[in-house]
Write a structure and sequence with these properties.
The structure is a homodimer of 139-residue chains. Chain A is of the alpha+beta class and 139 residues long. Chain A has helices spanning 3-6, 37-46, 124-128; strands at 17-23, 29-35, 50-53, 58-61, 70-77, 84-90, 106-108, 114-116. The first copy, chain A, is globular and about 40 Å long. The two termini of chain A are 25 Å apart. Residues 1-6 of chain A have low confidence and may be disordered. Chain A binds chain B through residues 2-5, 7, 12-13, 18, 20, 22, 26-29, 31-32, 44, 54, 74-80, 83-85, 96-98, 100, 103-108, 110-112, 114, 138, and chain B through 2-5, 7, 12-13, 18, 20, 22, 26-29, 31-32, 44, 54, 74-80, 83-85, 96-98, 100, 103-108, 110-112, 114, 138.
Chain lengths: 139, 139
């Protein structure tokens, strides 16, 4: 794996650290995923973002199902080396498996209510298929 | 605590979820912290960002030492309710305890090298004091 990944403080969280995905064009925060040394190495090697899926317990290339790949423009590391900021060109209309451009399409107001504030940009089922066991994947 | 926090999927990570802090003015990602239901409730009540410190195992108001408080403009929740995006007005010159505007002041290049690419905006020791046991706090 080399020196790169060993510099990251993955031990704080069971081998994983959060990676913020930011649109290089415009600066919107699109999603947060988790990476481990293996997925970071795959990301650096291919130039396309790979996460580690906690629910599926495996390496996961963002866009492997949808084609909505995240092309890496820049990777930044925070002061404590326990979080990444990955600036990307996002291929496809949106990153969210629910059909939005960003996974952060809802606000939380002072009364604890979640309010959808963005517009859907694609039909989720036409990209990801019907939900399996009521749950869609995010690929 | 009410219904708000119960909607968040904190159970995935020992009661904590990552919160991305984004500058409302310009869109730069400033830092990533972790929140639990208690720190989210304090954030919503006061309008100033509170985290849960994993290293100190306690509620932590950002800026309690430095005065570099994060005033909440908007809280967003992601599709899986396991990450927050908090857009803020950042008081003070920078959020990073190392003296930078953003904690993401280093890039990671293809050879695994970390390169400082931002300029320091304040003297860390004049704000936070000298490091204790070689480690500064981030408050």
């Amino acid at each position: 794996m080399g020196g790169t990944s060993e510099k990251l403080a993955c031990e704080k969280m069971g081998g994983l650290i959060p990676a913020v995905i930011q649109d290089h064009n415009g600066g919107d925060v699109l999603m947060v995923g988790f990476v481990n040394p293996e997925s970071l190495a795959a990301t650096q090697k291919t130039g396309e973002v790979h996460f580690f899926s906690r629910s599926r317990n495996k390496l996961w290339k963002k866009g492997e199902t949808s084609g909505h790949v995240l092309r890496v423009r820049e990777i930044r590391v925070d002061c404590d080396a326990d979080a990444l900021l990955i600036r990307v060109d996002a291929l496809g209309p949106g990153v969210c498996h629910e059909g939005y451009r960003s996974c952060f399409f809802r606000t939380l107001d002072g009364q604890g209510q979640l309010n959808v504030v963005d517009e859907k940009v694609f039909e989720s089922e036409s990209v990801y298929g019907k939900p399996v066991n009521g749950k869609k994947t995010q690929s």
